[in-house]
Amino acid sequence: MIVLGLSGLPHSQPHHLRSRPGIAEVDSRICQGMDSAACLVVDGNIVAAAAEERFTGDKATGAFPEKAIAYCLDHAGITGDDVDLIAHGFNYDRFRRFFHRTPEYFDEVLSGRTVVEELARTGWRNPGDRFRPVDHHVAHAASAYHLSGYEDALSVVSDGMGETVALTVHRFTRGRMEELYSQGIDSSLGILYSILTRYLGYTFNSDEYKVMGLSAYGDPRRYAEFFARFMGADEGRAAIGWPQGALGRAGEGYPDALAFLEESLGVAPREPGAEVPDEYADIAAAFQARFSEVLTDLVRHWLRHTGQDSLCLSGGTFLNCLANQSISELPEVSRMFVPPAAGDDGTAMGAALHVAGGFSGTFSAYTGPGYGADDVRSALKAFERPGGGSPVWEYHGFTDEYMDLAARDLAEDRVVAWFAGRMEFGPRALGNRSILALPNGDDIKGRLNAIVKMREGFRPFAPAILDSDYEEVFEGRALSPSRYMLSTARTRPERIPRIRGAVHVDGTARVQIVTKEDNEVFWRLLHKVKEHTGLGCVINTSFNVKNQPIIASPDLALEALERMSLGRLYIEGFRVGLGG
Predict the structure, then answer these.
(1) Strand pairing of 310-314 and 335-337?
(2) How far is Cα 363 from Cα 39, in angstroms, rounded to an integer?
């Protein structure tokens, strides 16, 4: 059976922007259905998956994933007519009665008919007959459980909201799914996190990771008492003390919630782009600390309630690496899985697997487009510039010499771009579309932030490290999320100077543990780095510039090489620089 999975609500953001002309950029994503993606499952195997943003350049777009669908079909060598079922990671039609006051909005934005119509518009025949909507949290839970490889597991999903819920708990027993608990959006941890993000002057439903990074620079004690009273966990449910009506007027930017926070904290919401005084870092620190405590308490309750020790987490809330670290340290957890695409893009994969009846393959995070030597040669030729500035290149293939050249560049403190194999699925670059650097390079954080990435200086960089070197440098359990940069780890104090550019100010690092099983090419490179430096570790940050999605194709990689101050591009066996 062939199942195409889709995520996103294609009309949601256009409706949001159209109905609120002049809305601020930081409020432009206060809507559902962003992060659209497509995933193709054939006979229980994931053949291809990618987010639409990688093909359009519109970061985190919720547009109908036409290009992502085309990629999936082309990679499999099939057409839309060959697809048996189309799974969608929302099922609002089941909840139409809750939206009786806004029927026009429901029909234009939320109904599954909007996706069916987009399929028909792009040439699909009889898509409605094959369309299978999946409850949003079911799609999230399926994306974690089926990819985990666990037979029995506890699943916890937490996000802004599904159709009508923001927290669900399921028990999986040999593939059978049983709902244990669900909670509505009035105490949504995801919505709270996004409102706090907006309060701190960053974009709602986009910049939550900046709050996580900023939190390390603050003192959590200053506002700890307020957050301890305001949010908590009670017998497996989230408890948030919003006053009556605070979550109204969402499309206008939650002004009542922001006013409540201002009154409670005694600090006005930060203007986007303004300086970040200490009190905002202190607020971020206190909130992050309490947020981690609440999530950990929730998960602990359900682990003890079920007696389960295998844990699957999904939903955008579990992209929070500090919270994931806290949960991973629970003695009740023996193993833990968070999918690389834990956000809404992952519901395309989860919906497809749920409709397909499970997953029969071996999971890989590398499900996007891949390119060969001929593709790179064509891109290099197209990039030639009369009169100078053309790429200067040499081809080696993925030989030991090629790996050694890249490792030497890194050991000599050059920043390089690394492009190899199929693109990652999810928000983290995991060694196939990455910018790499020496973790103890000269002012490496400053160089990467100011010259290459052009982003806020407080944001940390992540280390990719050989699995065999992890315990030498880091403390804590090397559970599955650390293979996908979804958990932080404490750096051993004596090792901080060795990887100082990859350690945040709180002594943690968002680690990627690299195994031969997950990514043999990247693993080989790190072994070569170890030969030259004594440690198989590099800074690994996504191959993109500020506010742009990760690079997908060779032509975009060459454009980025020209735009960014990169020492070298290693791409599919080619070593590329720019001539004079």
Answers:
(1) parallel
(2) 13
- What confidence category does residue 580 fall into, taking pLDDT thresholds of 50, 70 and 90? low
Q: At what angle do helices 189-199 and 278-306 cross, to 10 degrees?
A: 170
pLDDT at 529 over 90: yes
Based on the domain organization, do 470 and 383 belong to the same domain? yes
In sequence order, what are the residues at sequence separation of 6 or more whose Cβ sits closer than 8 angstroms to the Cβ of residue 490? 474, 475, 476, 507, 508
What does the alpha-carbon distance between residue 107 and residue 520 come to, in Å, rounded to a whole number? Answer: 48
Q: 139 Cβ partners below 8 Å, 6+ apart?
A: 7, 87, 89, 90, 347, 348, 350, 351, 354
Look up the pTM and report it. Answer: 0.96
Burial of residue 412 (number of CB atoms within 10 Å: 0-12, 13-18, 19+): exposed
Shared domain check, 352 and 378 = no
CB contact at 8 A, 243 and 260: yes
Answer yes or no: do 52 and 143 share one domain: yes
Burial letters 161-177, b for 16+ CB under 10 A, else e: bbbbbbbbbbbbeeeee
Q: Are residues 328 and 348 in the same domain?
A: no
Instruction: Give the tens place of pLDDT for each residue, 468-501.
Output: 999 999 998 999 999 999 999 999 999 999 999 9
Which helix (H) or strand (E) segment holds residue 321: the answer is helix 321-328
Amino acid letter, 237: R
Contacts of 387 (CB under 8 A, 6+ apart): none
The predicted model gives 124-136 an average pLDDT of 98
321, 349: one domain: no
DSSP 190: H
Two tokens, residue 28:
């432009």
pLDDT, tens only, 15-34: 999 999 989 999 999 999 99
